[in-house]
Specification:
181 residues, alpha/beta, 5-stranded parallel beta sheet, two-stranded antiparallel sheet, globular
Length: 181
């Protein structure tokens, strides 16, 4: 089984890369039997705005993004919270996908002033339309409690319980959904 950990922000000075790396390391260190984790950074895909005619290079990026996302049996979406929602680039990237995501589970890791709760809520609604099944447990990192000077990621140890719970749920659902794809 292959699980993609997707960093959903591309802005300069972002903290998403450090959160995504932590999630990846945490998951990989669990040594789940028969499971591989892969860290995917949205910043590596130069996607155009949906609806704008893509250049040849952007068309290739869309194809690569689609193929990468289709290769997974489940996902962990790592999202910042901007203006009480998900980053625009992440929403745009997800809008390029539908069959690639259908009948797969997703777990959520958010970060922000309120732990990314509003961003995760927005993702849950949008992802349901893409036939993604969101697991119940989520992980929420606070800019005030889990980041030094709001920029250096230093998660509190108590997040391990939610992270393990979210991954446990995700793997059960990924195994079940694999039987219907």
């Amino acid at each position: 089984m292959k699980i993609g950990i997707i960093i959903g922000t591309i802005r300069e000075g972002r903290v998403g890369a450090s959160v995504g790396k932590w999630v990846y390391d945490f998951a990989a260190n669990r040594n789940d039997e028969g499971v591989t984790y892969e860290l995917v950074d949205l910043k590596d895909y130069s996607l155009p705005l949906l609806g704008v005619a893509p250049t040849e290079q952007q068309g290739a990026a869309i194809g690569a993004w689609s193929a990468k996302m289709a290769s997974f049996d489940g996902y962990v979406f790592v999202t910042g919270e901007y203006n009480r929602s998900i980053p625009g680039a992440f929403k745009n990237a997800l809008d390029f996908l539908k069959p690639e995501l259908a009948n797969k589970p997703v777990g959520y890791v958010g970060y922000g002033g309120l732990g990314g709760t509003f961003a995760i809520a927005a993702l849950r609604v949008s992802n349901a339309q893409q036939q993604l099944a969101g697991v119940r447990t989520m992980v929420n990192f606070s800019l005030m409690a889990d980041f030094e000077n709001f920029t250096v990621f230093k998660p509190q140890p108590y997040h391990a319980m939610n992270m393990n719970g979210m991954l446990d749920e995700l793997l059960v659902w990924a195994k079940a959904f694999k039987t219907i794809r």
